[in-house]
């Protein structure tokens, strides 16, 4: 909680340093657990959404890890996905696919998650069609590129 107050003060003074500190704090809170991570994301939701390119990889990774960890906190994971969905990328789409695939259809969150999946898929395919040379797929590792 103390660190959140420091970050709010830092945001007013130095925006770039604020982004790096928030990114670092997101990584640390990922280790502390879902509650700490969700609290941080909710406190800085506006900044995370507007500068999503700076934070999207950490949030994607966290959502996937928290999803694999436990099924008890599914409500909190859905709230993270609802923050992530408007700015999601191809990796977010893959994560949502895995979540929706394992989720029973009678789950109350199923329609919402399918809707988020459709929105992200539409956005990604629209961008790929709009810009012919753009393919929004995850980067391959160096070993895979070398092997090919």
Number of strands: 0
CA-based shape: globular
Q: What is the tally of helical segments?
A: 9
Low-confidence stretches: none
Beta-strand content bin = under 5%
Give a quick account of the main beta sheet: strands, pairing sense, barrel closure. none
Q: What's the overall average pLDDT, rounded?
A: 83
Question: Structural class per helix/strand content?
Answer: mainly alpha
Measured distance between first and last alpha carbons: 48 Å
Q: From the alpha-carbon coordinates, what is the Rg to the nearest angstrom?
A: 17 Å
- Roughly what percent helix? over 70%
Task: Spell out the key features of this protein.
78% helix, mainly alpha, globular, 9 helices, 148 residues
């Amino acid at each position: 909680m103390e660190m959140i107050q420091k970050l709010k003060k830092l945001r007013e003074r130095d925006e770039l340093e604020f982004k790096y500190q928030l990114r670092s704090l997101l990584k640390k809170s990922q280790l502390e657990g879902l509650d700490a991570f969700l609290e941080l994301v909710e406190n800085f939701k506006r900044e995370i959404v507007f500068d999503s390119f700076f934070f999207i990889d950490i949030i994607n990774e966290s959502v996937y890890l928290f999803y694999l960890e436990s099924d008890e906190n599914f409500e909190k994971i859905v709230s993270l996905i609802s923050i992530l969905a408007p700015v999601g990328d191809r990796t977010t789409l893959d994560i949502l696919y895995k979540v929706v695939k394992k989720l029973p259809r009678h789950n109350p969150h199923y329609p919402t998650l399918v809707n988020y999946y459709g929105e992200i898929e539409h956005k990604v395919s629209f961008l790929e069609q709009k810009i012919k040379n753009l393919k929004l797929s995850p980067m391959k590792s160096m070993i895979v590129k070398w092997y090919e």
